[in-house]
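debug: dumping io for the single-chain case to check the tokenizer round-trip. Nothing else runs in this session.
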Amino acid sequence: MIHVGILPIPNFDQLPTEFKAIPAGIYICTVKSYEMATPKNGGDLYVKWQLSVVKDLKGSADNAGRVLFHNTFVTEKAAWTSAAFTVACGLKRNPTGFDPDACIGKAVKVAVVLSEYPKGSKKFTNQVEEVMVIGL
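debug: decoded output
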């Protein structure tokens, strides 16, 4: 193990020690990144999107920079989720598929809900329920 000494983090003693979900609502986000993934127990490939909150619909930036995750799928039965995501990003529909890189940096509107996880724990996480075109 390498000893690195004290890492400089401003107000480290005042930072929360537990995750706190953002309030449920509608937010404007930027698509930051994605990764192709498969479920741990096997299964079909999906796209794991990382979104960064810019502001809520009232213009508040209180949660700016907070990260949300959203999955879309590429299987025949669920590819509509990826189609809906690319439309929300403002991309034209392509009959042969889509390039996830084209979504990076695009702004989208998302509906965020709170979801208890694990069930019965009284701890809440955010879940992106819907991704929409900003103008709608």
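debug: round-trip ok. DSSP finds one helix and five strands in the chain.
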